[in-house]
Automatic annotation (TrEMBL):
Stretches assigned to the Smf/DprA SLOG domain: 67-277
NCBIfam families hit by this protein: dprA
Name of the protein: DNA-processing protein DprA
Record-linked InterPro entries: DprA, DrpA_SLOG, WH-like_DNA-bd_sf, WH_DNA-bd_sf
Classification lineage: Bacteria, Bacillati, Actinomycetota, Actinomycetes, Kitasatosporales
Family statement drawn from the similarity comment of this UniProt entry: Belongs to the DprA/Smf family.
PANTHER family referenced in this protein's UniProt entry, alphabetically: PROTEIN SMF (PTHR43022:SF1)
Gene responsible for this protein: dprA
Amino acid sequence: MDEEERVAWAALNRIVEPGDEEAGALIVDEGPVDALARLCAARQRLRLEPPDGARELAHAALIGARFICPGAGEWPSQLDDLGPIRPTGLWVRGAASLRLAALHSVAVVGARACTEYGARVAAELSAALADRGRPVVSGGASGIDAAAHRGALVVGGLTVSVLACGVDQVYPRSNEQLLKRIAELGLVVSELPLGAHPNRPRFLQRNRLIAALTRGTVVVEAARRSGSLNTARWAAELNRHVMGVPGPVVSELSSGVHELIRTGAVLVTSAAEVVELVGGVGTDLAPAPQLPALPRDILGPVALRVIEALPLDRRGAPVEHLVRRLALPAPAVLARLHELCALGMVEREGAHWRLNPERIATP
């Protein structure tokens, strides 16, 4: 890409609002240089100052940021799935490669006013994902977003914060130190020009980037009108995986996630289950859940039949009763009873055999 195109993209980034489909279609049809000329001519008629792309790039360099435009080597190609509403470029702080970070990344999002349960789940899930080499992407907001970023940082993993303001701005102020840490060890990203401040439409437009950058989105906690559900809808539209972590059924902050699961999102409870879904087909499989071992798990089929034939009352039954009930030879039944007695599962009292309630578990 030549410098003229790069400067044109930076200028377009200053005057094109996120998600402007009409301007995006013009850029696709005419290319960044000619599209910029058309848009600048329209601005001149309105007596608006033309953008200076070169100045934008120089300012970014002064504050340690860089500009990644479509077609550049570091550009994450999955953003092209957004078509005419893809960003005109991304401003980035941090040394890691955004393209490589996005290849196997997972979004972890949720409520700002989260519960202790939600924050803990988000942090532990993100830590486990980052530990497995899966960069964690979130929005840098309070609550679940902050917990997700911190979880990834704790294990030395890579995390990416996608902002709804310029990368030289801090929002919310309470996350100033966290965002500084992410810029040092991960990546802080925004499609908005330097100096841009957040507003509600920009948060919603930001969500499409979180969904597009990642292989799947996990919603940890969300009420029915949560903005994180907007990220999940974008993920579904872009054919990314949509996942939800269940919570208490009496919690309003879990109601949105539960509705998401009811309408098709995959229920996940661990990083292994997330990685199984977003990983390659037939690879990264989550281990099968291991049930607690019971004494009867080691028994053979005949011994199990003997256990089931013994009555539950304390008096028990004689061998003859079991032989008739099982239609098995007496020596076979007696041999199994002695085995079960050695394991402590049955007891003998005279001619009667009975279950030992302290050692045997019913199905």
